[in-house]
Amino acid sequence: MDLRENPHGNFPMRAYAVLHNLRPKNIKRGLSVSTPRITRRVFTCAAAVAAASLAAPALRAQTKPEKSRIAIAVGGKAGFYYLPLTIAEQLGYFKAEGLEVEISDFAGGARALQALMGGSADVVSGAFEHTINMQSKNQFIQSIVLLGRAPQIAMGVSTKTMPGYKSLADLRGKKIGVSAPGSSTNMMANLLLARAGVKPAEVSFIGVGTSAGALTALRAGQIDAMSNIDPVMTMLEQKGDIKIISDTRTLKGTQEVFGGPMPAACLYAQAEFVQKNPNTCQALANAIVHGLKWLQTAGPSDIIKTVPESYLLGDRGLYLASFNKVREAIALDGMLPDDAVKTALRALASFEPTVRPEKIDLAKTYTNEFARRAKDKFKA
């Protein structure tokens, strides 16, 4: 009998060798031998070898990232807006997925987006709205996992320079601080001003970052109002430096401002990168969803122990108060709801003339494929 004529059909030849107590090299030479008696024990062993030989390569192909070194750009990493990114980094969840990430922190989301488009970053942790805005310019970027399910942005006026504030119309001619021009905090301010009939050209937007610099700018009177994220806004609010006039740090507040659920931070990359690196994108999504899962049960002391000391801005108590205020705004499972995507488009189109809803293909701005698998893996 010629062993190359495999009598067990698709049964791997290495397993067939086990059945017949032959070394693989004998099979390759095509030696003719008689078939010995096959016992149940031998057959079971061979079946295990067969299963392993078939499954192992497929498993490796599914899990090994195509690109293990990843450059991530973020604008204002110390903010709660990006807390899931920090948790995944600090707790080693990226490394657990076979990734070595280098996170570059910029003054705002617009700068992080520039890094992506300029080629110095592979992925951005930034506002979902950028995926829509860029498509309107015929540039396709795609969200692969959601970090926040509410914008977590608050807008307030300085109690020092605008003590007599009555309405948004009072902001004409004023200086408004944002994390960076073109960022999500800037978009939020534009949306609110547009509803009051105030055009972007009628105010001055000033980039102040999302940490200590923002606190200093407001308290020094360099700006009259500010659209920013926590912990900065809660710290200014509790010290009486600012009066909040619009708030999306809670799901209820987000519903009131946008008329529906509004996505916040996500990980996004150029569509070509997502297409060419599905395993890498899956590893990124896994790390973030793992972090989201951890955050669901983390207590205040867990957060304090995990984030870098500089993120506390010198006041642990206020930092934790800020966290409690935005906690429900953090995503649960990394999935981006379809209705939230529609809300984002509607909001952008309300003040951005270049964004025309009929020209935007929302299906190309995000995918839940990776988040869905990560959700199943971590039971998020």
For this entry, give a set of tags:
alpha/beta; 15% strand; 17 helices; D-Maltodextrin-Binding Protein, domain 2; globular; 380 residues; five-stranded mixed β-sheet; 3 domains
What's the helix and strand layout?
Elements: H1 13-19, H2 24-28, H3 40-63, E1 69-75, H4 83-90, H5 93-96, E2 100-106, H6 109-118, E3 123-127, H7 129-135, E4 141-146, E5 153-158, E6 175-178, H8 184-195, E7 204-207, H9 212-219, E8 225-229, H10 232-238, E9 242-247, H11 251-258, E10 265-270, H12 271-276, H13 278-297, H14 300-306, H15 316-326, H16 338-349, H17 369-378
Parallel strand pairs: 1-2, 1-3, 6-7, 6-8
Antiparallel strand pairs: 3-10, 4-10, 5-8, 5-9
Helix pairs in contact: 1-3, 4-13, 10-15, 13-17
Describe the protein's architecture and organization.
This protein is an alpha/beta fold. The protein folds into three domains: 13-63, no CATH class; 69-150 and 261-378, 3-Layer(aba) Sandwich (D-Maltodextrin-Binding Protein, domain 2), CATH 3.40.190; 153-258, Periplasmic binding protein-like II (D-Maltodextrin-Binding Protein, domain 2, 3-Layer(aba) Sandwich). Helix content is 44%, strand content 15%. It has 17 helices and ten strands. The protein has a five-stranded mixed β-sheet, sandwiched between helices. A five-stranded mixed β-sheet has the order 7-6-8-5-9, sandwiched between helices. Strand 6, helix 8 and strand 7 (204-207) form a beta-alpha-beta unit. The radius of gyration is 27 Å and the shape is globular. The termini are far apart. Mean pLDDT is 87; it is low at 1-36 and 40-61.
